[in-house]
Write a structure and sequence with these properties.
The complex is a heterodimer of chains A (336) and B (294). Chain A has 336 residues and is of the alpha+beta class. Chain A has seven helices and 13 strands. Chain A is elongated and about 90 Å long. Chain B has ten helices and 14 strands. In chain B, strand 13 and strand 14 form a beta hairpin. Classes of the chains: A alpha+beta (336), B alpha+beta (294). Chain B: InterPro entries: CO_DH_flav_C, CO_DH_flav_C_dom_sf, Diverse_Substr_Oxidored, FAD-bd_PCMH, FAD-bd_PCMH-like_sf, FAD-bd_PCMH_sub1, FAD-bd_PCMH_sub2, Mopterin_DH_FAD-bd.
Amino acid sequence: MYRRIKKVLGGDILKKRGKGIGVTFYGTGYGNGFPDVSRAYARLLEDGKVEILVGATEVGQGAKTVMVQIASETLNIPIEDVILVNEDTSKAPDAGTAAASRQTYNSGNAVKIACENLKDNILQEAKKILNVNSKIGLVCEKGSVYVKTYPSKKVSFKEIANINNNLKGEGVFIAHTTQMDENGQGAPYWPYTFAACAVEVEVDTETGEVTILRAKLVLDVGKAVNPTLVEGQIDGGFAMGVGYALMEDVGLKDGKMLNSSFEKYIIPTSLDIPNIEKVLIEYPEDTAPYGAKGIGEPVLLPVAPAILNAIYDAIGVRFYEIPVTCEKILLQLNKG
Amino acid sequence: MNLKACYRPLTLKEALDYLEEYKDKSKIIAGGTDLIIKLRKGNINPQVLIDISFINELKGVLEVGEYMEIGCGTTFYDLASCILLNERLKGLKDAARSVGSPQIRNRGTIGGNICNASPAADSVVPLLALDSILTLESKKGKRKIYLKDFFKDKGKTDIRDDEILTTIKFKTPTKNQGLGFYKLGLRKSLAISRISFSVFLEIDDINRIEIIRVASGSVGKFPMREYKIENYLTGRILDEDTLNTALEILEKDIYERLNGRNTARFKSIAAKGVFKKALLKALCLAKGGGKIED
């Protein structure tokens, strides 16, 4: 008897589960004919460290880490020996906005080119100092240059800097961006990042509440310069996608925002986000710095379609407008 | 802002003296989680604040005979973690735990939640279902009033400008009794309630409802008792038909109450689901604290 009442009152039958996926591709950079140029300078400092000047703004995405990693990799020096100046506009050259998922790809390329040019100049100088006829056979390692077949023939970056204090390199990267034709056809971007998201949701048919039970996000990153940062971007992008799909509404009325504070403009909390299983696919992009493509926006894009598909799978209602709030779900379920 | 002074009395007597002196020119501040916002927005403009958050005699939970007595200055955190409140009162703890954020729960008080008279006040709903009695004190003396009679309109209560709400008391639930609470918010934490329900239930071995008190939040001008559904359910055996009829009554009642608002249809439907969840929780507790499989 008690069991039967419990069942009547709200057993699992009233909660419907469904699964859905979303698949997207997204062009890195401004694209569609809008000029997209990143610049960077690299300079050998007196103490043998290398200064990187690039106007790539850190907005929490990890530009400061990634630019240092790329410079460190290119010059084969420890990351401690890279001095990054990235947000001082009196020093750093323009590297465009931290937008369009473009900093790692575009400005990363500029930093890589600047470092390659600096490295070339360092090797030229080392060639003279080490008294060999060619740069061929010279190795750059941990802040020194040596002759590969005669490793004791070696000079440090610091010694090189003391002999020539004007060693620099400039990097300019111009991205592919061509305007589409009047029919919206063409090749507006290069490269593209691919992403797929799968979720399982539970819809409470009595209150309209949606709970995301499980999530998986697969991202074609080209190369993860810093895998932990990419995973962090996935966590953040997924949460943003949940807000986009289920909660966030500026409530525009007659040109005014009704939900103009975080009291009414609802974004997800940690309790609204499940553990996200993450898969990074590393298929290096030829034109990218060490193969790395833009991932900032791509981590967000497949989330809302996956959630809406999962809701459809759960309750058979197809929503064409977001956010899908409990109110919209309940009214749809009780239509007519 | 017109604020000239903020007094911080250490005893209730001292606080009542200040209140007697300044009356409507003053505002009582406890946790301040609602008051500070109103001050900033300019919605209130007192000359004097009387800060009662340092008065120890207004804090904490006491067991007095068959009653539990909660001091008005008890925070939501204290309430949610109070070991005196037994498992049958889980609905009250759940409500306290669902208020705002950890910061709000550490500052906000039960007395403030009641006196602020917000329709969405989470802790008030289970206190209504417990048929709580408030004690209001002034220099002139004490008076008692049922919580269900305390609210007059949205943000309006029966309290006079020389009175402080000092305690809230209710009978400790016993055998065959339980208190359930469910809140529908727009997210899983830090959510303002869209609808909340609390159910106090006493049910016998053959599932006859001996006592049922139902309270709602955010479906009226203030948190209130749902007498129509209470009257229908009292004395009946809880089965599928009874429940369905009760839900119809509730839906119709709330739809009529909110008629004209664009949320009327949604809220009247959702209220049924929220009520059922609160009832199920109360039922499980009344039947001996059985786990709710959800």
